[in-house]
Structure formats: structure tokens, C-alpha cells
Fold each of these.
Amino acid sequence: MIETLRSTAAEAQARLAEVADLDALAQLDVEFLGKKSALTLAKRQLGSLAPEQRRATGQALNEIRAEIEGAVGAARDRLARAALSEQLEAERLDLTEFRGTARRGSLHLVTQARDRLEDVFVGMGFTVAEGPEVESAWYNFEALNIPEWHPARGSFDTIFVNLGEPEEVMLRSHTSPVQIRTMENQKPPIYIVAPGRTFRTDTADATHLPAFNQIEGLVVDRGITMGDLAGTIDEFVHAFFGGDVKSRLRPSYFPFTEPSAEFDISRADGTWLELGGCGMVHPNVLRNCGIDPEEWQGFAFGFGIDRLAVMRHELDDIRELVNNDVRFLRQF
Amino acid sequence: MKVTLSWLREFAPDIDGDPVELSETLSALGLTVEEMTLIGETVDGVVLAKVLDLRAHPRADKIQLVDVDAGDGKAQQVCCGAFNMAVGDLIPFAAPGTVMGNGLEIQQRKMRGEVSAGMCCSGAELGLSDDHEGILVLNDRVVPGAELGMGLGAAIGLEADVLWDLEVNANRPDAMSVAGVARDLAAALGVDFAYPDFSIDTGGYSEAEAAEELLTVEILDPTLCGRFVATVLRGITVGTSPQWLADRLILAGMRPLNSIVDISNYVMLELGQPNHTFDLAAVPDGHLRVRRAVPGETLTTLDGRERELIANDGVITNNSDEVISMAGVMGGATTEISEETTDVLLEMAWWDPPTISRTVKRLNLVSEASNRFRRGADWGENIDRSMQRFIQLATQLGATAVRGFVDVAGDTPDRTPLAVRSAKINGLLGTDLSAASMAGHLASIGFGADVVVSDSGVADLAVTIPTWRWDTETETDVAEEVARLYGYDNIARTVPRGELAGGLSDYQVRRRLVRQVLVGFGCDETFPMPFLAPGDLLKAGLADNGVTLTNPLVSEQSVLRTSLLPGQLKAIAYNQSHRCAEVRFFEIDHVYLPPLPDQLLPDEREYLAVALAGSEAPEAVAALDLIERELGLPNVVLRSGSPPGLHATRSAEVVVAGRSAGVVGEVDPLVLENYGVTGRVAWLELDLGALLDGPRRSHKYAPVSKYPSSDIDLAFEVPDEVAASAVESSLRKAGQDLLTDIELFDVYRGEGLPTGTRSLAYRLRFQAQDHTLTDAEVADVRQACIDTVSKRHGVSLRS
């Protein structure tokens, strides 16, 4: 009997190895391991055997059952793997069809430039101050040591607003009014940069806009020197443009700083590019804000933001910055 | 300010060196070189030639045939577009092979069938004048001994020179003159500076007459005029200036007019002293009065325009007290020099700079003279020197000067020595200069600077500011002069380390986050200029109350926006016209609402706009949800209504913590039509500044329950006029703390429902913090939800 069962087991192994679907597997399971299978019937007959025979036969039956169960399990695993791989094949996707379906928008170039500038100055210990774009003559001119008759007023090409007395309210022609507002509201030490929009009566062309963006810096503290100004500008230039770029100051004139300077940065070809203006805060400006120039000294600097974006991306027409052409905006 | 090296050398003969290095030195002094031109260098290969014959071109009207002899005795035929030469004229000629200044190589070629073997040159082509039209005829300019074929430079005796165009700052009145630039440059180079002797030999003076006898000058307002010097020149003939003088004026950017005007300009350029000439015959009794104008007075100025005068203006009047000149700004027509003029009253004065500045600005009369006066001319010796120089040049042309000047003084700035602390200068500059070193720098540019040692041994300075530096008043001004001469580049660089931490404000950080959220939402950031055209606000359905500009560049940019809507619609229309229909834009920028009561400045606010072309209102609501989450806005409510400019039935007011904070929905189709926008535009506009400054949700966490939750679904038949948010609010009220989550998972309109109602299906999740809810508890709270909604809104549960 055992021999017969062993050959049945061998038959089961062979058929299970070739079974092709789960239904057939279930039938084979019943056929070889079910209640009516030879193995189950043989197990029922164990009681009729002599005790010494019963033990050996029982052990053999268990071995055979384990063998067949193992084969059924292996067949089940094989079929499950095949079914899964069939399912995966059916789910095949060409992922390249889906490139570009989600679209992230873009930050405007001026925002990107402004954020980078802010980050560099924040790293140097500055905070960021902001102020209104429509200003009074006091903030835009008088507090900055530019009295009403001053020839420099003409050079600002100011756009005036129909509020107050004639020429009393204007679109700020520089970000320097934020210096005044900050010093009026905050005691030194002061370390701020003030980015923002400024205005001039410049007709829009490839290199000019009537509304453009500047960033202004102001430091007021004890013992601040012109060497500190030159060093701060140098450190900024290294951080923003790279360590190889050098800076220099040249004497210039602004009513709100004395001494005043233009600052240049070096170009790869050895020439210099004028970047902005700077100087030591004029004692009259400090006094106008209630700060004693004998106790406190400071420096200020300012330059264009848009121009940095123009340089970085090699724009040949600055008007792209305000045209809002989506074919332009999406490049960045 | 344009200066030439040769002119500078008349004041500092030892100025020398590589022109590029000299340019660097000038720039380092604050006299920024805008352009440097090497002059007197003619183009290699351009020679002196003679016109032998002129013939019409047989097949062209606009060019003629010219035969020239370029020194070899042969006739070369050239086609030439200019017609200003005559046979026998001497001209500059470029033979084939010559490379012109613009890089063009002259080649032999045929023009309309006629050979052209070279080029006759204009002054502009050679950099010798501005004339592009005619050929430069050299008949009067060749030096003795010049021969045909000789290089042009040698033939006309050109000397090499350098021309600098300098940017002179408003605080450098002295540098508005050749002498002033020479003084600065000489100081930087460490060479001597001296004025040449401008006195004339006695032959040019009429000993018989004295200015004092011929002229009377009264300064009635000493605050207007610091000094008034005058004399008389007789025997003037108004003619052409000598070539050397005319050449210098041309290089300096001025057009030679006639000998008197040219001398006047020459003296102004050279010494910085503007001057004025009156026809003496038109000044009765030689009597001049200096005063401020009386309102209502008028003057017809040299340009023929009648000017109305105001009280600030400075004027010169005659013996009848009639205005004959505007002080420092422009002369009057009645006393103008004419061809008949023989005797001239020459005047040089110092005018109060603010007065001149105000008049210049009011009348928009900027001139070389007024520019110098309003920056502050020199009231000292330079006036005497300039008088002498004028007389010297005029007598060289045959005029005779009378003896002496009339010289009347008004108020001039105080020039008592200024106490300057060397420690303050070093403390400002970050230098460690001795007082003696500072004094040396100051003396090099004509400042009086004495070292004063105090009892305690501190060496400071007593500084006498020269009369040519009206701008300089204070210790700080003096510090700048020291720094300039010491060299900005020589100041050691240091970096201040403040005690404060840098950083962005909470407002600025969160504004950046909003930008990033919207970028992630697929929006491109736009940045229109904030100007609108008149009517733009009305076209957008908004109140036409934008603040207007006084002097806009163009009327399309004459109104300040009160909303970001018009700018966004323009941007969308622009892109749609370029075949980009469904743009998604956002903008964070200022709007300028009319001033609040008692305020001078507009109520300026920072707004956020999201404009989604091709999207419907729900997409704008989604944007609002993102921003609400990002900013942690408390209690955001959509209040029904139709805000201006928006779709009547698809828009709402956004209310945050009880305050109106903006609008959301779709743009009114009529507004879209006004702006030429096609399709729908979902729109969100928020007062972002107010939201960033406003209240935020609590940071405190809510514990997550450890007990199981139960979900139930409820659907109500709700009339359209009842907002879903109202139903939700009722459900929240009924569910109280047990209701942990609520989702509107289905909205259904149509079959099976009465018109004007829809089914709102909610999934409610109930959960307790401290125990597992029993079936009875869930049933109770479910019933409470149904009852509350039914009672509050009169709606029934959908079966």
C-alpha cells in the first residue's frame, strides 16, 4: 500500500508541476489530499493495522502528505507569481506620455533677484525694511538734505501725484525715503536693506522703465567708517557675484551722503561696471531723524535690482520684465 | 564738461602720462570720464589732395565725378556724394586700401558704371568736425609748405591731443571749468598748478577813460548778488573768431557764433565764470541796478520770449528801473549785442545759487551759465581774472578796454576758517592720517589748511574754504576732500559686525511662502507696472477713484491702480492675442487707494491677485483654500454678493475674522469683453498685507483620539439660496466636539429634485477623546445634526 501511495505522490508531484490555473490546482488538491483521496482513505485504515505496522505506516503516510502539500504550495506560489506578472503586464504604462502634465508656475525674475539680494544681506546681519511707493516731499527730498531749490532735485526726474500742494506728493524717485522712515521709527543700531519699486520720468525703452526696482542699504551704529562701507560692499559683491569679483569706490555726489561714492564691480575683461551709489550718511540726514551725528555714524548704499536680472539672464530688452508674456515668464 | 589735455596744460604744464591712466586718475578724483577721445590723430593713408575737375555723373544725380591729384600729378576719378567743392580746392583724400576709423576699408569700385578710386572725406569721417554732409575743404587750414600727397595731420598741422568728457557732480562748481579740472588733476599727480598771466599790454587800454566814470552799479538786494564787476570795451567788431578759439569751443561741445559770444563762452569754459555783455548804447547813463523782480514785471529775453517774473527772480534794471536782464539766467533782447554794436558793457557777477536755481526750474531755462551759477560760482579773484581774460581776448581782436572795473559787493558766504577735528575725519573715513597729512591734501587743491595744536597736544586743522567751493561748508565736506585726495582706494576695508541678528520679518517670510504656494498651484508671477489709463478702472467695473499723476509720460500711464484687476486683465488679453489662452497668473504688489481722511498720502496696500484664464470660480476658491491653509487664517467666510467687476452669480466677498479681506469668484463677462479677454477668468484678490498683519489660528495642537471613529452620511435637499457653508456650519454646531471631520462629498442637481434645489451629501466622522462611541451616542448626534439643519434652513433629509 505504501508503495502504491508513493507512486501516487510521484504522480501528484508531476501533475502539480504542470498545473496551469488555480481551478485545476484546487481539483488536484481534492484528488490527492481530499477526503476521498487514496491518502485519506489509507489514513482511515490505519486503525486496522497491527500496532507495530501502524506506527511505521502512519509515519510514511505523514511524509507522503507533507510531500504532496509542499508540491501544492509550490504550485500555488508559481501560479500566484504568474498571475501577478500577467496583471503587471496588463498595467504597463509608458511614463514618457505623462511628462509635463503637472506644471509648477514661476517666480518673476525681479522677485528672484530681490530674494537673492535679501538673503545675502540677511546673512550679513541685515533686516529688510519696506515703505510706501507714493511719498511726500519730506521723505523723498527734504529729510534727505535735498532742499526745494537744490539742482539735484531736477536730476531725479520725479513723477508727481495730484495730491496735496503742487509737487508735495510724488512717486518715490529712490528707495532712500525708507532710510528716513526707519530712522524715525527705530533707534540705532540700524542695519537694514530696503528693496522696492522706484519711479522716474523715463520713457520705456530697451534699457529704461518709468517704474523699476532698487535696493537700498543703511547702517547706523557707533564708530561706523567709510572703511566699513567699502568692506561691506566688497563682502556683498563677493557673496552675490562670486569671490573673484572685485569692487571699488569712486568719489561722487549725493546730497544725503558725505563723503559720497559710486561703486563699481570688476568684469572678467578687466573693465569696471558701475553698479550703484553710496556714502556716509550726511549729518543733516541723521539730525533730521533725531539722531545725533556726534554719537552715531552710518553709511548708505543703493543700486538697481532689475539690472541684475537683466545681466544674469542676458536680457536685451528690460521691457520684458513688465510685459508679462507667459512665454517669457515660464523660462525661469 | 569737456576738456582737452592741451588746455589743461595751460594751467599745469607738467600734466603728462598715458591718456588711459590719466582717465583713471580723473575718475578716482570724482571727475568720472564718460568718454575719452584721442584727437589730432588722422586716419593713416588720408592725404592732402587737390580737386582738378568736377563732372556730372552720366547716370546718377546724387553723386558727381571728381578728379583729384593726390600728389602723383595724375588725375584719379572718384565718385562723390557731396557737391560743396570747387576746382582747385584742397581736400582730404583716402586712397584705396585705407582703413577708415569705422573699420571700413576703401576699395576701388564702380558706381553706376563709373570708376571710383578712393574717397573724398568729410570732417565727420575723420573725426575733425561734426559735419557729415560736405567734404572738408582745407584751403585755409593747410600749413605753409604743405604739399599734395602729404599726410593730412602734417598738412594741416594737427597736434595730438586728448579730449575728455567728464561727468561733473553738483557739488563741484569748480570743476565746471578747465582751470578747476587742471587744479584737481595737478594735485592728484603732484605737479604744479598756476594761472597764466592774463594781463594785457597797456596798448589795449584807453587811459583816457575809467570804468568808474562810465558806469554806475547799485546792488539793491545784497542777498541776491554777492559781487558785481563791470567795465566797458570800445571798438568792438562782431566778427568771426580765430580758428584756434573756434576749434577749442567745438571740442568743448559749443558752436562758434561770433567773436563776442565765442570769447564769452571761452572764458566761461576756461575759468568757470559766466559773463554777460550789454550793448552799452542800450544802457542809458551806463546805470545798472540789481534787485529782485516785482511780481507782474516782464522781460523779453534774448530768445524773443516774454517772461513773467516773480518776486524771487533776480533782475538787472536800467536807470529808469526797467528790467533789462534776468540775473544769471538770460539777458534781455533790448540790450543784446548786434552787428552795429561798437561799445560793450561787460559784466561778471556772483548770484545767490538757490535764487538762480528756483528761476531756472520755474522757467526751465537750463544753460551753461545758469548751471554754473546755481552750483555756486567763484566770487573771489576768479572774477577779476576772468575780466582780464575777456579783455585780453577782446583786445586781441581790436577792442579797447577802459581803465579799471566797477566792483560792487553784496553778501557772500562766510569764509572765516573752519575748525576741523582730525579725529573726526579719521573716525569718519576709517583712516589714521596725521593733521599735517590732511593739511597737505587740502592745500594741494587750494584750501587754506593750518595745523592747530591744542594745549593738550591734539593736532587739528583750521581750514579756509576757497571761494570756488560754494558747496563746501562743514567738517564732513572737508573730510570728503581729504578722502578724495588721499584716494578712496587707499582706505582700508573693514566689515562692521552689529549686535543684531539679521533676518526676514514674519510678514516677509510668509509672503514668500504664499508665492511658493501659488507657484506650486501652477501660477506664473507677473509684475505689471502700477499705472493705468484713464477709464481702465471703469472698464473693470470698479470705482473711478484712482489717484492721478501730475506729469505722466503718456496718458495711458496717468492713473495709479486701486486694484490689480485691470493689470491682470491686460496681461491675459496680451497673452491671448499671442495664442496663449489659459494662463494662470498671480501678482503680489501695491495698490494705491485714495487717501484716508486727514491723510496726505494714498492708502497704500499690498494686494494679492490670482487670475486663472479658462478656469471657473471653484478654481479661485481652491487658491483661497491654499492661502488660508498656508497663512493659518482664522474663520474665513465667503459672504454672498456680487463684488464690483465680478460675475453676478459666481462671486463672493472673502471675510476673514469678521473683516472684509477681498473677493473671489469669476470676472464679470462684460468686464472681460471690455478688456478683450475670451473665456472665463477665475479671480481672487486679497488684501494680503492686512492678512499678514492680522490674526492667525492658534498654534496649539489638538490631541488625536486613540478611540475608534464612526462615519455617517447625510444628504439634504437644499435650496440654491442656502450656502453650503451655512449647512456645514449648522452641522458643526450640532456635532460639537464629537464631529471631528466633515466632507461635502457630493453635490447633485437634476432629476428627482425640485428646480432651484440641490442635494448636498456630507460624510461626518464622529469620535470622542475619551471613549469608544456607542451606537446610541452616534444615533443621538446624527439626529441632532438632522434636526439642526432642518430647523435652521427648513430643509429635509433626502431619502
Note: Chain B has six domains: 2-40+161-189, 46-156, 202-409, 418-484, 506-693, 710-797.
Amino acid sequence: MSGAPRPGLAFDALFAPKGVVVAGASSHPGKFGFVALHNLLASGYTGAVAATNRERVDVLGVRSVADIDDLDADTYDLVFVCTPASANLDLLRACARKGIRAAFITSAGYGEAGEAGRAAERELVALADELGILLAGPNGQGVVSTPANLCAQIVAPFPPVGHIGVASQSGNFVSSFLNLARATGVGVSRAVSAGNAAAVGVVDYLEYYADDSHTAVGLAYLEGVTDGRGLYERLVRIAAKKPLVLLKGGATAGGARAAASHTGSLAADDRVFDGMCRQAGITRATNVEDAFEAAATFATQPRPNGPRTIVVTTAGGWGVVTADAITRSELELASLPDDLRAEIDEKLPPRWSRSNPIDLAGGETRDTIPEVLALVADHPDVDAIVYLGLGIQSNQARLMRAGRFYPDHGLERIVAYHERQDARFAECAAAVSASSGKPILTATELAIADPDNAGPAAVRESGRLCYASADRAVRALEHLWRDSRHRARRGR
Amino acid sequence: MATLSEAESKRRLAAHGVPLLDERTAASPDAAAAAAAEIGFPVVVKLCGDAIAHTTERGLVRLNLADVAAVRSAGAELFAKATPDDGPVELLVAPMVRGTRELIAGLVRDPQFGPCVMLGIGGVLAEAIADVQIRLVPIDRVDADEMIDQLATQALLGTFRGEPAVDREALGAVLLGLSALAEQDPTITSVDLNPLIVSPADGRPLAVDALVEVAS
């Protein structure tokens, strides 16, 4: 994946089109030509929408025309192409005459389809270049742009609004990341499946995201590397502007063989690729969750200025395991400063741990957690906090609410109190993090075991990720720290 | 691809700050004995020539020679092992350096990413340990430091069995020297400093063996 940059491409037409034409719309709800139009309309796109269909049938209330030539000029700037490859050259010429500046080609039958397909792809690229049309795909799943309410893709889902910019050499990874965005509530700015990347590749999209005000972090899936040196030079510039999270397929011999048959990619020496990422300041993820959670953390937490991490927990065992995870990472399990210990002594009975992890040991009362979080975050020798134990009381509240004694025996009142408290703790973690400028990551398995629990629900409401385990929170925080350290060491 | 002789390899590396032993070439067993006396015993004597890449595998190295007589007889034996394919040959006399810890450093040319600097844990278990850091040329001081910091086997780089910690400043300088060499001379396709012995005296790395390949 690389090639030279292609300046002046009409990315605005792709990501913020004033109007979209679905070429090859179908009235059959099982066909891509239907699904594309459906997804565009159902996700709230408010620009002009038109469709072409040889029989001129109405699809989903959109009056279709037989030809692009029958459309108004200068009304649309993106065409979403579901027509067969053989029709696409004439289609592009007609689009150019109507002022369309970007085309997303979902059609297959190109570079992935033998020598004839490769020839057709070269012809398509040459024509798009001649016409000045940005050519995305072919053989891609589509494009998403939440600032424009644009869901131009032949698959689900449409993600919540957010600041992660996704680009992928494999369309299904776009879906994976978007599904995780939906599940966690941490949203996406733009997402695009590069398909065969005939003219515009993953790195071109990442370059656009690097300067895009809606995007705080790039998140990409890469498989093949063709011009490694060119790739490196471009990624260095991208990563210097904002964090970039990469998931690379084909890191092992087995994966490399699979990649060769998937995208025809040549295997790269993974030790070289890994060193390249370190050198460029790229956050390299090991799997899809790691990649998404790293990006989600960059998008929603302040960056740590150092590695000194404090664990605040309501239960001892979690704290111990989290201390292990921090010690194994490049973070530092900070020693608890004496003055901070003295301040916390004022808030808790003497059985608390009096060291890091700060185990409250059940000694907390109504306001202890918000007060301790604020004391820790405001201490100058603390760089980051991992907070454990959110949602325990609401979990009990759930059982009480579902049991046959509810709402009598005082249950209604205590259930409401527990849920109010957990929501308050989550809000407080976000507010203290924002006011101190330090990351506070909240982790509990309730994030997936019971996403409706008032604790995780309030974390989502705050716009942040509720980590499914302390290990995953530590891993995400380590990614942030490495990024900060890379920038600090290089004066960026 | 052509392999430079050990002496020529080291000459090019020395110009870029790679720490090498005080070693001499000698055209005869007697000259080798004289050189050894100057360097101080014990010494290592190797047979060296442009066409000889794998001295150890061919048994062309004599270690731990303690006096003039031992050097003279080793030199005579090594000359006798030369074959017509070896072309012109000479003896290389070097101080015998012992260290518990061995590293590997070098340059490799990756087909995708071009010239790269490499640092790894060396020794007989190197391949099994597979603890290697690679960066693309050119690297800067921060990259060099990070290569050292990111080796997994950090315990070997601190104080170890009574020996001082690895001199990271000096080791980083070796990596920077390799990067500069690759930038200056694009004909170099690989450099192999194996082993790079960590001196038990001061923790500085010493390139005991060096092999440079150039595009022909």
C-alpha cells in the first residue's frame, strides 16, 4: 500500500457531497443497488438524492432516471456505482458532464478478477484521472461520513457521530470498527473501504484525515506493502499531525499466506514493519479490539504527560491484577505520594490500602469516590488513573428490581440511589479527567455483561469508552503514553 | 553481491565510529608473531581474504594464543589451509576479548523498506531468542536509544554477573554509525557485526568480527 500522494483530489465530494446519485439502483431489496439507496436514505442524508435504473422504476420513493444524462447538472458531486463493470466507463463520462467529482465504485470484476479485470481497472483509473474524478474502490463496500449524515455503503451499520477516521484495505474491517463504535458509543467521523484501491489507497484517505477537523485519530487496516519506503515517509507525516492506529494483517507466516490469497499482497518482514511503526510514532495494534479501543481512547481521553498511573478500586483483587498489567506494560505503577496518602486518610477509615492501587476496601461513603478521584487527578505526580468498581451497586439494584420484593421493603428507594450513585461516579470520572487534563479510564466487565447498568451507561453517555477489563484499559493507556512519549522525545 | 575482506570491512566501519579491536594484518607467521607481541597476549589469529567470508565455519580462527611460538605455529597452519579459490590471503592478529554477553548489530536491505539498522541479542542462542529491533535508515539518537530500550532481554543489558551495564551511549553510537555508513555508501547491501562483545571491563561494545557486503 503506498504510491505517491495524489494532491487536489476531491475528498470533499466524497465525504461531504451536496448530492448523491446511486447508479444502478434496484427495486429488489436483496440487491446492492437497493441496499445502497436504502442505507443512504435511512441514515438521514439530507442532500439531494437521485438514482439511475434502466427500467426507470421508483425505488424507495426516489424517482429513478434511465441515464445520468437525464439528471440536473451541478446538483450532485458523488456517484455511488452499483452497475456492472462494463457500463462504468460511459457512466463516468456522463457523470463528469454533470459536475460529479467523486465516484465510489462497488462493482466487482476489476483487479481482483484476472488479467481482463486488471486491464479494465487500468482503463477506469486512466479515465477518472482524465476527467478529474476521485475514484474510490472499485470492489469496495462504501463510504461513511457522520458530519454529512452520509451512509453510502452496501453493508451496515451507520455508526454514531465521533472523531475516529477509519480507512481499510478490507471492507469487513470497516464494518467491524463501525460495529464496535455502535456497541461502545464512541463514534466515527469518516470511514471508507478502499476496495482494490485502484486510484486512491488507504494512505491517501489517512492523509485527508490528518488535516480533517472532524477527525482526531486515524484507524486503519493494512495488509500489503508495495513501496515500503514511500509508505514510511507518508505515514511519518500523517502520524506527526495526529495519532494513527494501524492493524496490519499478515504479521505471521500463516497470516502472510492468507494475505497473499486475499489481496495478493507481498509479505513484509514483520520485524521491519514493527520497527517502522515505532520510528514513525504509529500505534500498532495486535487485534481488532485493541485497534478500536486504542483509537477510541485517543478520540475521547486527554493524553498522559507521563507514565505514572494510579489505580482506584473498590475491591482488592482487581487492583492486584491491574497492578500486574501496569507493571508488565511501559506504564509505571506510581508510588503513592505521602501528601496524597495523608489527604485520602482524611476521607477513609484506616483499612484502605494506603498505597497504589488505592483499594477503598469498602470504606467509602456517599461522596468518597468523586472526592478521591479528584484528589488523585489533581496531584502533580500522577499522570493517569484507572478506575475499577463502577456499577457494582447498580448490578445489585438490577437483581432487586427484577426480584419479587420490588418495589416494597425500601427497594425502590435503594435501587434509585445505587443507580444515581453509579451514574454520578461515571460522570465524575469524565468531569475530573476533563478538568485535570489527565486520562481516567473506567473498566468493568459490566460494560459487556450488562451494558444497561447505570455505571457503564453513564460512561457511554459521557462520550467515553467503558473498558471491558482493566487489562484492556491498561493496554489502551499504554498506547496513549507511547504516543505522548514519541512526540515529547522528538519535540512534536 | 561481493563480500569485503574482514580487514577492508573493518576499515570502512572504523571510519564511522564502530569500535573495533586494535588488530593488525600480517603477511607471514613471523610478522604475525611480532604484531602479537605489540598488541599483548593472549591474541586471536585468523586467515583473512576477500573471498573468505566464513572463517569460523572453515576452521580458520585460532583463539587464545598465549605467546610468540603459539602465534607462529598457528600462522603457519592457517596459511596451509588456504585454497587456490581463496585468492590472496593474509593473517589478522587481534587481542583475545572475552565477554559473557554478545550482541549483534548490522545493516540489512529489506526488499520493501530498503536499508535498515538492526540490533539484537547475540551468542549461540541468538536465533532461538530472536530478540531483534530494526529501524529504517536514517535513524537519529532517539531511535537508537529506543532500539536498545525495546530489546526484550533488558536483564542482559544491565549489570550482569559482576560485569558493568552495557554502555548505551556507546552502543547507540554504533547504531548511528551504521546508519551513517548506509546513507553515505548506498552500494553497501549488508553489514554484520557478529559478535559485538560487551566488554567486561567497561560495558562498551566491541566488534570482534565484521562482514560488509557490497553490490557488485
Note: The two ends of chain A are 26 Å apart (CA to CA).
